[in-house]
Design a protein that fits this description.
The protein has about 350 residues and is α+β, with helices and mostly antiparallel strands. The chain has helices at about 30-35, 45, 165-170, 180-190, 205-215, 235-245, 275-290, 305, 325-345, and strands spanning about 1-5, 5-10, 15, 25, 55-60, 65-70, 75-80, 85-90, 95-105, 125-130, 135-140, 160-165, 190-195, 220-225, 255-260, 300. The protein is about 25% helix and about 25% strand. Strand 3 and strand 4 form a beta hairpin. Helix 4 crosses helix 9 and helix 5 (about 205-215) runs parallel beside helix 6 (about 235-245). About 45% of the residues are buried.
């Protein structure tokens, strides 16, 4: 969305909250987020408002600017990029309105900036990228009477990708959101990604399926299965996955990638009667069969073990990848996405 001369990437709307200054960045529509969940888990209702993967993007001729932001719930890392290049990292302390003062790198005065453009963004675009586990309020931007505009289409990647999934898609437990596997895949592929993950709450709900089907994107990815392990049995999981894939036939996306569960503790659980052991296997089969049977050439199955290739990718919770694991997964996923997309376009 565009407002204040800024592109609010991965943001559905800016919400005025009574008693709070500024406007909250919300990744999903409010009427959707407030109905999510099942009786045992309604956490998606607040996780939909977490700002991971949201970016403020703009171009200014000013040599410096101020931007005022507040983090709530907990401290949030902010990575400031100019084009594809990292400028600096800041931390927003929870509950405190912080004014970030940003200045153009002095070295840019003696180099040809056009040579700094990489795979994704024009080198003159400022990007303010937010980390995980909290909400962000935007207050103002001040370019000191200089120009301010959102990026043009030709200054950004040509392929827009929306990624739905669990906390792994959200970036847990990476120390920096930029290391998350979908961000790393986007960098490697030269794409632009919108994070539509719902940490611990990726339950393939009908309302979410309807929402994803309406997104104007070139690519969709669905990392599904793991969050349903503790809440559903096979029949309900099959029903939910089936509705999701059938609904996404309406999507304008040229390619839709279905990613089944990554290897995790369920693969090696000692208790073979536990939900993690049983459902790791049965849910993977449900997702795979649904993807293979969808009868739409735009759908592509990606096996989780082709992305997360062994347990060394994981942290010691045996569920979430480490930073190193996320980074390796991102490269593996980018290879899968680009190869399958190229193969389908050649048919």
């Amino acid at each position: 969305m565009i407002d204040y001369g800024i592109e609010f990437h991965n943001v559905d709307h800016l919400e005025v909250v009574e008693g709070m200054g500024g406007k909250k960045l919300c990744r999903f529509p409010r009427d959707l987020s407030r109905i999510l969940g099942v009786a045992e888990n309604r956490n998606a209702r607040f996780r939909a408002d977490r700002a991971h993967g949201c970016e403020l993007r703009f171009v200014t001729e000013s040599k410096y600017f101020d931007i005022a932001l507040t983090a709530v719930e907990q401290d949030i890392d902010v990575l400031i990029y100019k084009g594809d290049l990292l400028h600096k990292k800041e931390v927003l302390k929870a509950g405190v309105c912080t004014v970030l003062h940003v200045e153009d790198p002095s070295v840019y005065e003696i180099v040809n900036q056009k040579m700094l453009t990489g795979k994704q963004f024009a080198s003159w675009i400022w990007r303010i990228q937010f980390g995980m586990n909290g909400a962000i309020y935007f207050h103002y931007i001040d370019t000191y009477e200089s120009t301010l505009r959102p990026p043009k289409k030709e200054e950004k990647p040509g392929i827009l990708w929306a990624a739905y999934g669990s906390s792994i898609t959200c970036g847990s437990v990476a120390n920096l959101y930029s290391n998350s596997y979908i961000n790393q895949a986007a960098v490697t592929a030269g794409w632009d990604v919108m994070n539509k993950g719902l940490s611990g709450s990726c339950l393939c709900e009908e309302a979410v399926a309807d929402y994803l089907a309406e997104l104007s994107v070139d690519v969709l990815s669905l990392e599904i299965g793991v969050n349903m392990v503790l809440f559903f049995e096979e029949e309900e999981t099959s029903k939910r996955v089936g509705y999701l894939l059938e609904t996404l036939k309406k999507s304008p996306a040229r390619d839709i990638f279905v990613i089944d569960m990554f290897p995790n503790k369920g693969l090696i659980a000692l208790d073979q009667d536990s939900a993690y052991y049983r459902h790791y296997r049965s849910f993977k089969d449900i997702v795979r069969q649904a993807a293979l049977n969808v009868r739409d050439h735009r759908f592509h199955l990606i096996k989780g073990e082709e992305i997360l290739k062994d347990f060394t990718y994981l942290s010691t919770d045996l569920l979430h990848p480490s930073d190193n694991g996320h980074i390796r997964m991102g490269v593996n996923l980018a290879n899968q996405l680009t190869e399958k997309r190229e193969r389908s376009s050649a048919v």
